[in-house]
Amino acid sequence: MDAENLKRIIAEGESVEVEFKQSFHSVQEIARIISAFANTQGGLLFLGLKDNGTIEGIKENLDIVQQKISHANVIIHPAPLTKVGIHTLDHKKIIIITVHKADSSVFHSVEGVIYVRLGSTVQKLEGQSIVEFLRNRQILLFEESLEFTASLKDIDENKVKEYLNLRKQTDYLQNHSIKDFLLSKKLVSFQPEVKLKSAALLFFAKDPQSFFPYSLIKLVRFDGVEPIKVLAYEEAKGNLPQIIDHSVNFMRRFIAKEFIITDTKRKEIPFLPEDAVREAIINAVAHRDYFNKNEIQLSIFDDRVEITNPGGLPEGMSPELLGSLSIQRNPKIYQLLKDYAYMEGIGSGISKIRRLMNENKLSDPEFTITKDFFRLVLRLRKGKEAVPSLELTKRQINIIDYLKKNKKIKSKECATINKISNPTAVKELTELGKKGLIQKIGTYRGAYYLLKEH
After folding, report:
1. CA distance 59 to 48
2. Pick from 273, 284, 276: nearest CA to 236
3. Could you give the CA distance from residue 139 to residue 145 in angstroms, rounded to a whole number?
4. Cβ–Cβ contacts within 10 Å for residue 13, how many?
5. Which residues sit opposite 230 in a β-bridge?
6. CATH assignment of 394-451?
7. Are 380 and 413 in contact (CB under 8 A)?
8. Of 3, 122, 138, 155, which has the maximum CB count within 10 A?
């Protein structure tokens, strides 16, 4: 780096990536600064500069200072990648230590303590901040944590068989045990006896919610566009595949639809592409923060569907990169869902949702992202309101078919074509009226029914 660039950096002052030290005070101090740089974004440590950037130069023997720097690097575990250079500025010697950023799966500590850069200062991590740091680095993973209260007796053999059948390994358990299977998938650890990892329980436990009560999806159908009146509420429980399937079925039952009747057949057209909602549910299960004790929630309104899952964006991800970059918070869960054919494995979930919405001439998905939650909103077609899913009986289809051909129908005619009593015929006609498919004209014996134009 030439003198001009060095002076430009010095003129900009200390920052998260730059620090000035007039002299080498102690090995521990320099080690803390170097490790903090490595744990954050990397950086440059200038020796021979005052805090305000004034160039003082190194007064000590340069060889001795370099030996001290080497010693400082040694007491950092593991030792970070650094480069030491001697430069001349304004006829004075300074030393610049270039510190490279640590790999995302590594952290550096000094005497067992983790340091990071916060602005232009070095901060010691303590308590929960250590947990957050390790989680963001994916060094501390929920799926790899051990559940000491669980044993092999808690594993459901049928769930294992289902997985093996999907993987075309139907005869695996004939020559292997459940423990062999879990070992092959790295879902157990020896401490010294077998201990199950959390991922094993999320997929293969008889009752996953007995270990993780929050590992479910709350399913709600609200009346209108505000979360006030609840029309339907369910909880999707079981292992992760069962949770996904239950949620998808709920969505299909309660998502807004319009109905087109041709002859005796009814065609349902959802106001939202079901595959887009399914993809959003899968993404929520795959990428949620399982350290967070809250549940995923699927909320269906008249004008939109919301999927809210615990956990903000993982480190390295930004809203602008959604759909173009895949960062896996739960790599083992992601891989197992891929084995179940839920994931494509290329981080295409958000981009697929965008494409499906675009193909159906719907607005782009909306995102609300905080530190602790991620919400995806899918808007229905403008001007459309949700209607409950309608199931027509064979009798009702016969009535619709008759009206398509004869324009109107009376209860007596309804009774004849369906071979039912007149009171039952009136009941069927009344139900069709409630469903908004026909309208009643007149009263008493002169009453008849017409097919509504839509």
Report:
1. 8
2. 284
3. 11
4. 12
5. 222
6. 1.10.10.10
7. no
8. 155
The model's pLDDT over 31-89, given as tens digits with 9 standing for 90+, comes to 999 999 998 888 999 999 999 999 999 988 999 999 999 999 999 999 999 999 999 99
Task: Name the H helices within 219-273.
Answer: 240-254
Place of tokens 């003129």: 11
Percent helix / strand / coil, the chain, rounded to 5: 40, 25, 35
d(CA 214, CA 294): 6
Sheet bearing 194-197, strands edge to edge: 146-147, 194-197, 188-190
pTM, entire model: 0.62
CA geometry: angle 185, 186, 190, nearest 5 deg: 140
- Measured at the alpha carbon of residue 238, what is the angle toward residues 237 and 241, in degrees to the nearest 5? 105
Q: Is the domain 217-379 a CATH 3.30.565.60 member?
A: yes
Q: Which amino acid is at 445?
A: R
Q: Reading across the β-sheet that carries 373-379, which strands appear in turn?
A: 230-236, 217-222, 296-300, 304-310, 373-379, 366-369
What is the domain partition of the chain in residue ranges? Answer: 3-136, 144-208, 217-379, 394-451
Tens of pLDDT, residue by residue over 116-167, are: 888 888 988 877 677 667 666 666 688 888 888 999 999 999 999 999 999 9
Helices 157-166 and 331-339 sit at what angle, rounded to 10 degrees? 70
What is the crossing angle of helices 331-339 and 240-254, to 10°?
70
3-class DSSP state for residue 382? coil
| CA distance linking residue 282 with residue 333, whole number of Å | 11
DSSP string, 281-336: HHHHHHHS-TTS-PPEEEEE-SSEEEEEEE--PPTT--GGGBTTB---SSHHHHHH
For the domain bounded by 3-136, which CATH number is listed?
Answer: 3.30.950.30
